[in-house]
Amino acid sequence: MMLGFTVTQSIGAAVRLGIPDLVSQRPRSTSKLAAAADADPDAVHRLLRTLASLGIFTEEGGSIHHTSMSELLCSTAPASLASHSLIFSGVHYRTWGGGLETFQTGEAAFPRVYGAPFFDWLAEHPTEGSSFNAAMAAGATVRGARLLDRDWSGVSSVVDIGGGTGTALIRLLTKTSGLVGTVFDLPQVRQEALAAIEAAGLTDRCSFIAGDFFTEVPSGADVFTLSNILHDWDDESASRILRTLRPAMTPLSKLLLLERVVEPGNQPDEAKLLDLHMLMVLGGKERSESEWRDLLSRGGFDVTHIEAGLIEARPV
Length: 316
Prior knowledge:
- By secondary structure, the chain is of the alpha/beta class.
- It has helices spanning 4-16, 19-25, 30-37, 41-53, 68-71, 82-89, 91-96, 99-105, 110-114, 118-124, 126-148, 167-175, 190-199, 235-245, 270-282, 289-298, and strands spanning 58-60, 63-65, 157-161, 180-185, 206-210, 223-227, 254-258, 261-262, 287-288, 301-307, 310-315.
- It has two domains: 4-74, Orthogonal Bundle (Arc Repressor Mutant, subunit A), CATH 1.10.10; 92-315, Vaccinia Virus protein VP39 (Rossmann fold, 3-Layer(aba) Sandwich).
- The protein contains 16 helices and eleven strands.
- The N and C termini lie far apart (45 Å).
């Protein structure tokens, strides 16, 4: 377990060298992959031997081939994890170097390490910001499946609060004819979002509004969605977001949260690891069922349905 940092950095290095995309072009030996990546052949051989032992790539007949896991690291893969690997082995990795003080004080490490809160820092560093947007878009593709599986009959409008570049909402509108949607997020993602909306041919049914969800959000929609937004914030800040959202809703509006629910007990749970990561980077948290119910109640909502990955609520 203590060697987990070597896995994080090995995956990140492979993606930075472009190896997953090179293997997608054609399987080849580690020496040829190293030559194509302009890297040391012995080091690349040892890197790929280690990753293959973890199920990331496989060696067959002297050539490196993809596995179902290594395919996820290709830049063109659906729901690609390539950008995630860059963030976790880069910006987030350095953040955890300041982890001890976070556990001593309860305050996020990122502002201490980088000199600014995470989202403010991203706005000033466009390269890392683009990687973050790409990672969030890939994640939205997976989380958005929850929305696609729902019955949208009788729903005419939806607002995706903190919808980023619009990935989840675009998929929903593409599948659901007659539904009109709005992506609401910070101004810095406007151009990417508008380009994605235009590329999907949805300019007549999908718009982008820039703003701050601590201040005001678009009003009157049938459904409001927040996907992995509230886990970015502590309880006080998350309650503020909900209290901003509540007046924008009609009595019949629904709130859909695509969020993890921490399982009780001490069984292994990815959400427990991500809970620590949210604390470290943003001062946020993953929440248990009781914590979600309490938070939503404080924000003016009743929970009508809750399961792993999806919470439905209505305004009180």
